[in-house]
Amino acid sequence: MTVPELRRDPVGGQWVIIAAERARRPMDFRLAPPGSQPAEDCPFCPGNEAATPPEIFALRDEAGWKLRVVPNRFPVLTVEGALHKRGEGIYDAISGVGAHEVIIESPQHVTSLTALSEERISEVLWTYKARLQDLKRDRRLVYGLLFKNVGERAGATLSHTHSQLIATPVVPIRVQNEIDRCARYHDFRGRCLLCDIVTQELASGARVAMESARFVALEPFAARSPFETHLVPKLHLSHYEALEDAWMPELAAVLRATMRKIEKALNRPAYNYLIHTAPLNAAPMEEYHWHLEIIPRIEGVAGFEWGTGFFVNSVPPEDAARYLRDL
Amino acid sequence: MTVPELRRDPVGGQWVIIAAERARRPMDFRLAPPGSQPAEDCPFCPGNEAATPPEIFALRDEAGWKLRVVPNRFPVLTVEGALHKRGEGIYDAISGVGAHEVIIESPQHVTSLTALSEERISEVLWTYKARLQDLKRDRRLVYGLLFKNVGERAGATLSHTHSQLIATPVVPIRVQNEIDRCARYHDFRGRCLLCDIVTQELASGARVAMESARFVALEPFAARSPFETHLVPKLHLSHYEALEDAWMPELAAVLRATMRKIEKALNRPAYNYLIHTAPLNAAPMEEYHWHLEIIPRIEGVAGFEWGTGFFVNSVPPEDAARYLRDL
Q1: How far does the CA of residue A64 sit from the closest CA of chain B (Å)?
Q2: Is B264 inside a domain boundary?
């Protein structure tokens, strides 16, 4: 297996993982996402543990494992090897060192997080924190992205409920861009932009889908797609992994209730969720504020969106928020 | 019909068109792109001219029209109304003033640009220029994005070969980001980044798919997807609409030959192409250089890509370039 390479586009600034070992020949593409496999062949179900690489972490009770973390069988980055940065004329490249883990959220073959109890979801959210804290000790790793793909349209290839964690030796451009914008806002106004958004949204209420003592689920002012929803902690915190254990049950309750509303509103859509948090190697930041973005994938991404980062959304977020509140 | 609104996300910086009139109710989504309509119902075929809004521009010969430009029947922006910028607390919004045009490239019901002769493609490329020059006179419009969606996976809803032009009152974030990065490079090194890329790529040859006297088709160093291909003019030029008419036949020949190779390599994939050019209202820029990006849509965009702008590509661009050269 050749080590993958990270390359940065000098014009757009985005990084790309050139992962040649995922396809044997140039023609060997996945022309459409594979369909869901039947449950009896599921590599995430109990009894099939040998189908995954050896366990990194697990939670167990007397009945067996409740949650497992394993390396991705087809990792986009590999944990072995030195971090080597090189130039190629005007181009920048880095060896593809990183981690690619799968969090198997339940031994039951359920396809939605919402089929789990709040207590189990709380353990999943706690595991996210524990994995970030562990990976943080590897000084080669700069960023940890936690995400979930549900449904073929959202890029899922296995239906058994799971999340993924990719740790990279660079900060992804969208996150860096958010951090830069938040830093400019903080320079100019002396406050955290996300804190100000929470304050303004709670005062108006028009785009709030639900709230608890410490968290709010809101439809962003410039939602990129119908029913895009962000979960934001009300108190300032730059790093997800700094969240107190005592808050996990509340976050789990808000996440579960929000996802249930979205599943009901859109009849169990394909979706992605992901956590935007500060870089692993950064000290606590006054200007950045972690949040979880939920993006239902009910419309495709056409050339205009791809080419410009300019999205068209046919559902005003105020309408979506009202609809979710009323459910 | 309510006027659409442009909203900017304060954290990410991207603009979103909230186009509520495209969906009647929050639940009224397009859950999957509609299939291709049969040719006899095609609103772009001769005889069905009444199915489109009145013509903005056309090229004709003795046999009738060869090419038509019409307003999009379901525009994401509208040309009527004053440009009104407003704040909503910390948020920025602009009334959705702009243009959304469709370039019907042929009276024949063909589904690929490559079915047209080089001469006809040259007329299409000339029309792009003419439309940008015309829209430039409207001082409310700041950017003109020309793009093409082919195939359902790429967001196409009609199969009859056509392109689209969306003119907006703001510069899209991805283009602004490219301009900013190119300006930083120009500050630091005193040369245009794209000019340097062309020089380095022609010297190496490894990522060149084809070239002519004035243009090069190359696989970018950090290609985001297999067989992503950029057409770049060898001579510096910031604005597409400043391209000389005499160069159009050559650009048409390179575009047609490149697209034919990609169609052959990937068995007629869905794809988007789009032109990145300098803002309509900018003077000629030393630091920016227009180019045309072709993005085959053979893999979906999953949560990781969406959330980070970090792409995974399973085909090294050097392999793709070699394959295209050998075709």
Answers
A1: 30
A2: yes
Which tens digit of pLDDT belongs to each residue from A132-157? 999 999 999 999 999 999 998 888 88
Active site (annotated) includes residue B162:
yes
Q: Who among A164, A193, A301 is closest to B155 (CB)?
A: A301
Asked whether residue A160 falls in the same domain as residue A44, the answer is yes
Q: Is residue A68 part of a domain?
A: yes
Pick A37 or A237 by higher pLDDT.
A237
The verdict on residue B160 lying in a domain is yes
Q: Which residues in chain A have Cβ-Cβ distances shorter than 8 Å to B166?
A: 304
Chain B residues within 8 A of A185 when measuring between CB atoms: 10
Q: Provide the CATH number for the domain around residue B148.
A: 3.30.428.10
How many folded domains does chain A comprise? 2
Chain A: residue whose CA lies nearest to B302: A155
> Hey, are the CB atoms on A29 and B154 less than 8 Å from each other?
no
Q: Which long-range CB contacts under 8 A does A79-83 form with residues at least 24 apart? A: A80/A3, A81/A3, A83/A140, A83/A169
Element (H, E) at A69: strand A64-71
ipTM tops the 0.90 cut: no
- Residues of A with active-site annotation: 162
What does each C-alpha distance from A282 to A144, B70, B215 come to in angstroms? 12, 52, 44
Q: Do B31 and A298 touch (CB under 8 A)?
A: yes
Q: Pick B304's closest partner by Cβ from A145, A220, A310.
A: A145
Helix B248-265, helix B317-326: angle, nearest 10: 100
